[in-house]
Amino acid sequence: MEVDQVKQRQGLIALAFLAPALVCLAVLRIVPAISAVVESFYTESLLRGGRVFAGLGNYTDLLSNKDFRQSVGVTLLFTVLVNPIQVVVSFLLAVLFTQRAAGAKLWRTLVILPIATPPAVSAVIWSVIYRPDGLANGVLERLGLPAQPFLTSSSQVLPSLIVMLSWIGVGYWMLFLIAGIQEVPEEVREAALLDGAGPWRRMISVVLPLVRRPLAFVLVADTVSNLLVFAPVQILTKGGPNGNSNLLMYDVYTRAYAIGDIHVAQAEVVILVALTLAIVAGQFRLLRGDQ
């Protein structure tokens, strides 16, 4: 009995410590999520003077909307391009900066520095870099290449955003991979070295399999982060030109606050969450299959 009472008391103490976090989770996450799902089935009616039940009307309107379909296509293309770039570059930099080489700590610090800059500030910095008379075209001019339109070009706007977001995110994801690489037993590295494995072979056959868990976390977290990109698009491109940078999160903002159709925006949020869950579930399934 005394043991059960002690366990019960410990459980109550643990619950008391968790209570503030659970309340915040419910108020800031769960309740708004339920509200978004409920509101997505309603619409505002001027004739009836309030909201009325619309069923799946908001969803069918979205799916039949050409701009929404373009936004979904742009978001999927952006995700397919940016995620592999950021994960691969983060992994390669993590491997490089865990080597015992002169200046490795300094370069690691320089790569990490963009993390300390808020995304909105980073977007402003890159808006100056991408200006017609900015740093990017200045470098191209030095190399004897013609100036580029970058953010005002339908074909260049998405790659330009990918470069900027990779500059922001690579250092952050690299930290997780550095922690994973440092957990690789030194004797395993030494054994591979004694077997005559070169740097590339050691990275592929020794390091990569042993950091699969942090690599899987980085892939999934990076995917979710990139599907929710908003501030750089809002500051730099406003979804243009011609909708070629109109990512779903910015399209939600436009429908909710520019057009003022909050119920359709809520339906789009539900679709975005469902799309994110589907992509993440597919990644988990592929990663589990590799194991």
List its salient traits.
single chain, 291 residues, mainly alpha, MetI-like fold, two-stranded antiparallel sheet, 2 strands, 74% helix, transmembrane, MetI-like
Write the layout of secondary structure elements.
Layout: H1 2-39, E1 42-45, E2 50-53, H2 57-63, H3 66-97, H4 104-112, H5 119-129, H6 135-142, H7 157-182, H8 186-194, H9 199-210, H10 212-227, H11 231-236, H12 248-259, H13 262-290
Antiparallel strand pairs: 1-2
Helix pairs in contact: 2-13, 3-7, 3-10, 7-10, 10-13, 12-13
Largest sheet: 2 strands, antiparallel
**Uncertain spans, ≥5 residues at pLDDT below 50?**
none
Instruction: Give the CATH H-level superfamily.
Output: MetI-like
- What portion of the residues fall into strands of 2 or more residues? under 5%
Major sheet: arrangement of strands: 1-2
Mean pLDDT: 87
**CATH domain topology:** MetI-like fold
Helix-residue proportion = over 70%
> In CATH, what is the class?
Mainly Alpha
- Count of runs of 4 or more consecutive helical residues: 13
What CATH architecture do you see? Orthogonal Bundle
Number of domains: 1
Morphology = globular
What is the β-strand count? 2
Structural class: mainly alpha
How far apart are the first and last residues' alpha carbons, in Å? 45 Å
Please state the CA-atom Rg, rounded to the nearest Å.
24 Å
Series of secondary-structure elements, N-terminal to C-terminal: HEEHHHHHHHHHHHH
